[in-house]
Task: structure prediction
Amino acid sequence: MTEAEFEALRVFLKSRSGLALSPDKRYLVESRLAAVCTRFKIDNLSQLVREIRAGRASALEKATIEAMTTNETFFFRDKAPFDLFQDVLLPKYLKERAATRRLRIWCAAASSGQEPYSLAMILKEAAPRMPGWHVEIVATDISTEVLEKARVGVYNQFEVQRGLPIRFLVKYFKQVGDQWQIAPEIRSMVDFRYLNLIEDFNRLGQFDIVYCRNVLIYFDANLKADVLRRIAHVMAPDGALLLGASETVLGITDTLTLDPAHRGLYAKTAPAAAPKKLAVGIG
Amino acid sequence: MSYCLIIDDSRVIRKVSREMLEGMSFRVAEAENGEAGLLACRAEMPDLILLDWNMPVMDGFSFLTKLRATPEGQHPKVIFCTTENSLEHITRALDAGANEYIMKPFDRDILTAKLQELGVLPVSHTA
Result:
């Protein structure tokens, strides 16, 4: 693959998925796209770039984007964001939404489903305290492949051990050979949908809680700011946003403010506190 | 410093587990079967026990039953760490007083997650 071809791939990935690939990631392209070449019976990466440039093969484009996105995830990843949901956010919204008894949650980079299913299991445990409540978990991802895995909800032995408490494995999974399938009662709580974060997502409606963890790190600063502004736009006025451990809004957008008591938790900036031109953009 | 006892008849598993746990600042002792494990517990009750199921002399399930039958034996957090990976085994272990369960093979990530779940290892960050 020539420099020009690598550059063409970088431009393609950036424009279609937002993925900002630095020049030193050439090895990553070569290792991850080799399998795509084999699958599509393409001789080499040069030919793959030519096919993409010709714009004739949308399946190939999709497979290329999917191969380059990172789908690392596990149940209750980092633990703290889920403790926060269980101990802080859920009690808060149970009180504040008592009149409507409705709660909407969005997992914006759901990958193979472990994050939304972790939230669903917490909600199932809390169900006795929530009679008559309607909770909706919308889980989106750019990869149709991982979304399909998420919908089926079958995980291997390693996947169910990384972060999943054993009592939840016993309670909410069925053993199928050497795999484990999540129970239909948990699967039915999550609505998996395809979504590319660089595109408009207003149609998803308004959310009380948004998990957008470990995806913005792959975007450049402009796209990060854009996505964060649009996330703020779909958050309820008192909504909550959770970012990944290494992510921040600091210096990127003023539309969101860190909760000083909880690392990784953000609220919409109060209109009066935000600069005028940014406040206009807040829904 | 928390004290962990590894009970496993495999020298390799004991060595690998010890390295992982010492890397997490645990003080570690080893026993090669349940009976030796009970003796070690009588000498000093651990905070954490990593327990194999199938061992000669006394298996892990018998060890756990005897351990939990005593008042002082309520203290340690017990993680089964075994190739027995059926739902039936897991349920039996939990009913007998195990706190967590690891299906071999395992790695540092799995062990770390289990220890954090039990609260014997701090979560490295809070986001």
